[in-house]
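Write out the 3D structure for:
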Amino acid sequence: MSRRLKNTTAALRHGWHPVARSGEVADKPVAVRLLGEPWVLARLDNGLAAFADRCPHRLAPLSAGRVDATEIICGYHGWRFVASGACTAIPSLGPGVPAPRRARAIPPWGVVERHGLIWIAPAEPFTDLIEIPEADEAGFDSVWLEPSRSSACAGLLADNFLDTAHFPFVHAATIGAGEDTLVAPYRVTPDGEGFVVQMEQRVANPEDPKVATGEHPLVQRRWSTYVYRPPFMLRLRLDYPDAGMINTIQFCLQPEDEGSTRIYTRLLRDDLGGDAARMAEAARFEQAVLDEDLALQERFDLDGLPLLGDLPRADPLRGESPRDESGRGASGRGADADLAEEVSIRADAAGVALRRALASLVDRATRLPARGAGQPADDRDRLRTTAHRTEFRRTTSR
């Protein structure tokens, strides 16, 4: 049996994960779940802070406490903590008595606010946050869908987002009408720890206003560009040259627990002209598309995404599928071949690349020296990690 990446796989600690919309965190502590662990978010001293959601005293949830300017206060015994995790006061000890050395709240490696989301990296991440260039381009309107939640694991949901062969079947009522079932060969280009997929398609575009008037056909040309950053950050830019419109979808996943993934979806469109009604309709349509995906994903009984390692005699980054000695498509040969759970074909090049990228993340995490969760190995590493985390906050929190 091949390895499966679950929502609680420890290697995922080495990634940036969305844990809340920016507007969800105001003047009170907010409890969130990530990788099967509880965390708390708070705005302290005009900045953002995150901690493991337990007070070091009696392990009460800090999210049950309150915020007082620069500090989060435990609701059980009133212990106070600043953004670094240092305990500044213990009421039961009396004024001026220093806290025990181990009386610290545990922050993650990093916490930032970007792209309308709050992100946590529990341990030092292997890749940077994904970029959303359309957010800074003139003429683009932005609208968020309400966050969704699925019992499917984040890996399966990311795979579904990258898959185009399912459109005519899963999305027949929305974007799949009239599509050819053939998926032409396409290239997956490595890009840092992730990859980029580019393809030209002919798909239904019911959101083009001129389709309703008969000026444009329903099925149109579309240039699709998928950008993936591990573990679960994705961006899809859809260029419709005939309709003269661009639709970009920011799709990011929060692996909360073994059977729970929170989904954040944002649309960036250059054809809505700031019209609030059209923006709301665009969000409703995209929600209908997402609901079709989730309805199917909810029926999967897999506890994780099957991963792949090195499969010789094929290059999925060129759109090739693994082959057996007769040249027919197969699950592959070599170390992983006999263990592969899935049969992949040419149309699955993006999904194969996803499985390999995530397998690489797991393997890289496995090779790291053993240490406490989120803790540097020694004082020198602790200073370097703190400096890196501070620099990242200063340059990317926007």
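The longest helix spans residues 276-297.
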